[in-house]
Queue: 4 jobs
Job 1
Amino acid sequence: MALVVQKYGGTSVGTVEKIRNVARRVARTFDEGNEVVVIVSAMAGETNRLVALADEISEFPSEREYDVLVSTGEQVTISLLSMCLQSMGYKAKSYLGSQIPVLTDSAHSRARIKSIDDKKIREDLQSGTILIVAGFQGIDPAGNITTLGRGGSDTSAVAVAAALKADVCEIYTDVDGVYTTDPRMVPDASKIEKISYEEMLEMASLGAKVLQIRSVEFAKKYNVVIHVRSSFSDKPGTLVMKEDRDMETVLVSGIAYNKDEAKISILGVPDQPGIAAQIFSPLGNAGITVDMIIQNVSQDGKTDMTFTVPKADCKKALKIVEVIAPKINASGIKHDGDIAKVSIIGVGMRSHSGIAQTMFETLAKEGINIEMISTSEIKVSCVVAAKYTELAVRVLHEAFGLNKLESGE
Ligand code: ASP
Ligand code: MG
């Protein structure tokens, strides 16, 4: 007998018929002799509808009331799913986050889970009851309802699995797993059988569409095995878990891209101690997250400093840089919003050489100019002109043998 935590996202519980489908799957898991705790999201589109209502009634809705409102979508789905299971003859019981309780801090709309009391859950499981818990929500020490940020029911599920030391945390969604790259861009992308937490975090731009990134951080911390799979099929999905030896034999696990950054260069910056701090402290203070930074070796005591920021923050960053540039005697500023960051990711890079080389040669063969390069232990990223995104992703996907046929699927 295993303890299984299952999470069903909005599209999986989007209609009454789909809730019935979920109930059948939950019942089957229970009938196979497992203890089952289910976490659900609101019906697809419901949380957006609630957010829009708040915006309509007030320009600045209070954060406390916002959470009271947007947490209601999950109250509907937990009760409907529980009723459905009961009508099928099963013992089922629904709980709001506040009833468990799922204790969080007081940061409304982006609260972090502090602890989960497992007493009620264990008692119910012992009496043969299937538990249905509302995702996305909790309660703070003062008794206020909190929510965990959009997509937060993934994190609820992983946290419940961690608290119960569940055998597995299955996350059911409308895709059947994590792919080697965006399948809409490369139809030959293949499903990854298992991927390490670190790779999944680096793949944010791909993975975030499948799992809330914070849930992966949580799973990594508590060593929860996540099985991402489709609620519309029985095929196994992708396991997100601790790195193992097989994973290292794969050189590159996935190709990610990000078109949401812009590049800013400050030219002819004096090569002196303290200059980088003078440039980046005001950006940091303004809440702008700088991603890649490249500083050249100086020539004649001058150097260029190039970095990327989220596109949405580019104007704000330029304003700040325009103030700093004259102060540090820089000779000019350039910026470019038409860029994309293409990354190859794999834990195999730690133990194999020549991987970056393959990336550069592959891009060169297509005449794609590399504007910036950055590396980490398990990732190499190149900034290229945005118009080459698709081509770059496609040729890299092929060069690293990730196409479906080559991987034997
Ligand atoms: N219902 C919430 C949202 O739409 C939480 C979730 O779906 O994970 O963001
Ligand atoms: Mg979701």
Note: The longest strand covers residues 261-270.
Job 2
Amino acid sequence: MVVSIASDHAGYELRQKVRKYLEEKGFEVLDGGAPNGTDSYSYVDAGIKVAEDVSSGKAERGIAICGTGIGISLVCNKYKGIRCALCTNEFMAKMSRQHNDAQILAFGERVVGLGVALGMIDAFFEEEFAGGRHATRVNGIKEIEEKHFK
Ligand code: RB5
């Protein structure tokens, strides 16, 4: 599976470790965003990178990291068809797949440690969408997009 990962400067250090973890697990990683953790780099540009990779089909899933995860998740969710879940624990990451069919997992380097981040990633890639009544709800989100996205 191809996974796109990007961060701003505030998510840079965690992104390096996450990328290594994903590569060790056998994922093909498209890495983008801040080139280092010192120079300011907007979470908007990092979010665009992940959301475009996923919405174009270049990547099947994405991981988006900034300081809190808030800014970058807001950006990703501006893309039609993208469901980016901002998570702070494994349970949320699991549910983001089971109930919301999220394609992008977002979190913050200033919020979660490495252990929690990797636990969320494992849950995010292990869980499948449950469908059924949850599909009806996800379809409800798609209907909103049809009305409001040009
Ligand atoms: C950068 O300082 C910080 O604002 C950003 O990483 C993120 O937390 C925004 O939501």
Note: The radius of gyration is 14 Å.
Job 3
Amino acid sequence: MSAMAATVAQCVTSFGAELAGTLRRGPIVDLLIRRLQDTFSPSEVAVALHHEDGRAGADLHTWPAGATDVAPLLDAAGEGGARRIEHEGAIWCLAPLMARRRITGAVVMRDPAGPFAPVAPQLLEAFAAQASVAIESAYLVDLYDDGRRSWQEIVDALALALCIVDREGRIRRANRAFAALVGAPPAGLVGRPWSAFLPPDWVSDVQRLLDAAGTGGEAELTTGDRTYCVSAVPITEGDASTVVVLFDDHTERRRLQDKLVQSTKLSAMGQLVAGVAHELNNPLASVVGFADFLGEIPDVPASLREPLRVIREEAERASSIVRNLLGFARKQDRQRRLTALGPLIESTMSLLRNPLMASRVESRIDIEPDLPSISIDPNQMQQVLVNLVSNAAQAIASTGRAGTVTVRARRFLDELAVDIVDDGPGMTAEIAAQVFDPFFTTKSEHEGTGLGISISQGIVREHGGRITLETAPDQGATFTIHLPLQEAPADPVREEPARAPATRLRVLVVDDEPHILHYMSATLSAWGHTVAVAQDGDEGLEAATSGEFDLVITDLRMPRLSGRDFFETLRRRNPAMASRLYFSTGDTVRGDTLAFLEMLERPYLHKPFSLAELRELLAAATARLPSPPEPRVSFGVSTDRDS
Ligand code: ADP
């Protein structure tokens, strides 16, 4: 090899070594220009890089800047191999930059001088080839970095926590959700063992999943109040050397599933309760009816008055419980009336006194004097009080020590406020924020449904009010029921029932319950009416078609011919009589029954009903009669009418 060839080879090699130090395109072009300056002392140098798709103009570097318009030279360099050409009276050397058999740019220099000038095109071509390889590598590195960055951005955007684990159990990569799950900075995870970050009681389960990676196994693991479904999948099928471990947060799904199960259970229970309550309606109708009936007898022996009063009150209480139970199954019309809150609170607390005492909870009542009465549904409001006071007692009992619940009623601006104050454990702000949510409970499955407060809030809202809460840990809790004083007018007060109309009516009563027939016929006869009875729809139809009645009162659910079929048949045979037919039923839970009754647009009796309600029906029915029946001769209650 000649001395010149050896020096050229050395020059090319040292340029190669220089390029190896960088993987960025800008510095590579700078190195190329400097190398050409050192080797040939040219008066001008230009390097152009093409776009990735081969179009010219991605990047142009000239030295000195903008001396000559080099565009035609760069074009010429791209069209052929390295050579020397004349341009604007000067000698230029040019060579293309090539990679993967494509032209990726060009390099040109003017007036090469010095010892290497004779071999300038060949040497320029060698430098260009080395720079091309380096530029291509830099491009591939950029591509790799871009891919890596977008992979990281995508996996970081996932809510699913994941980490990639190698055979030695070290984390290769992890996403932000994983870093948040283990509470460590993302940068501190890579290269460290996964087992150092996960909750200690997860380690054996996760190890088991890693050992069986790819077999579809899953584990449900919990930490704090969150539940994760964990699985492990090898990156390459059949090769468990690198495995992705996935942590899917199932907390919300779990909660929804639990709620669904709970509400399905509740709705089944609701149907059962409604069924039982409905069955109680008929016997209660007789008890309420007879108790009312006996209560109206003027000469009842003094010794029987007190037991009779108890029967009436207790029957009334049982009816109201049945109505409440049915109310759970069907939203009932509100039955509001002007109610004094003091006595309502007192009677509710007396109901609760025994269970409260059993939990070592003392109850206190503090009612501001002269509180105005308020238009509310007393049964519903009693339910709210029972819920809130029972919660307070349970909270106190959970502390294992005795305590006090105070129910305070006071006037507050244009509202009435009822505070239920307890000295129990109170609540954290986090729990307090959730107690109004349906299904939120901190009690065990058997103790709590999480519905008490939300149902109460619903009832109070229906009354135009709201429930608020003040509490802090170890400071007890105060729930306050706010009720507006200016409320919608109450339902007509039924305290003093209208007396029976002063007319003698011919009444047919149809019911399959003998006690109801007995009580109805006794009562109606006592009021001076003529009564006939029938035990089912068939008998009723026969009586109604053969006799003359001013009024027919019939049950709906009966064996053989139902009340509805009785009515439809009668309507075809004797429309005038059918227009004087009224229903009495305990079956107002079913939507189709209700729709049917409402479609008729005439009053109906809801079992169990009071004498006052029966009187109202008679009055309404009399008013609808085309010509008034004969005036009544006498009115009064006698004791010998067990017809
Ligand atoms: P449940 O009683 O069935 O849990 P609630 O809706 O009545 O449902 O109550 C929801 C939760 O509110 C209870 O589980 C309890 O954690 C909390 N809570 C209610 N009242 C009190 C109280 N007086 N003191 C402390 N916590 C209470």
Note: Residues 387, 391-392, 395, 422, 424-425, 427, 431, 435, 440-443, 448-454, 477 surround adenosine-5'-diphosphate (CB under 6 Å).
Job 4
Amino acid sequence: MSVYQGIGMTSQRTRERLVERIRAQGVRDPRVLQQIRDVPRHLFVDEALATRAYEDTALPIGLNQTISQPYTVARMTEALLEAGPLENVLEIGTGSGYQAAVLAGLVRRVYTVERIEALLRQARRRFHALNLINVRTKHADGTLGWPHYAPYDGIVVTAAPEGIPLALVEQLRPGGRLVLPIGTRREQVLVRVTRTTTGHEKEILEQVSFVPLLGGTS
Ligand code: SAH
């Protein structure tokens, strides 16, 4: 039985429709689809937007930021998991906390870094309310990663830098994968970087649209 059983006020049918839509767009990993079905996305948005939480769209979360589109969360999670199981994953850009919650059910430990303290505070409250005890948070500029718990099996960045932040590649173990959007505000591609013993390899997955990765904290 899912740990989320009973939390949803939203009908199972609405969630199932979202899962079907994401599957139709090519996400096939059943563990990922199960998380999309189970994680109560309506608890990661403002109450006024809760009725739209199971639509496949990004939604505003305040402070000019957005909770990612469920399809994109699913796709990035699948891209991380594809090559084998992951122990620890670092996320840059906690935002609402939704992507971290999706990961929390799939890997042993999730570390997540957010530069806006007010957003992080809300996300922490959600992790606590949902009893996600394997998520650790930090208020910092995620461009620098979180060296203390490195190396990571996977790193996911949910805001777009213009190039690959090398500090993040350095915090991957050999074979570890970094999934991130790269590009300008107008045009970005989703990229998977795999660390090798001698350097790294880069694959371009598809076009995406994210808020920019910014420096510093607020
Ligand atoms: N993963 C989030 C998506 C949030 S949008 C979710 O599931 O809701 C991207 C987030 O990245 C924003 O909250 C933004 O403040 C944050 N961000 C942007 N630049 C950052 C940086 N350098 N370090 C940490 N977080 C950053």
Note: Residues 65-68, 92-93, 95-96, 98-99, 113-116, 119, 141-143, 158-159, 211, 213-215 surround S-adenosyl-L-homocysteine (CB under 6 Å).
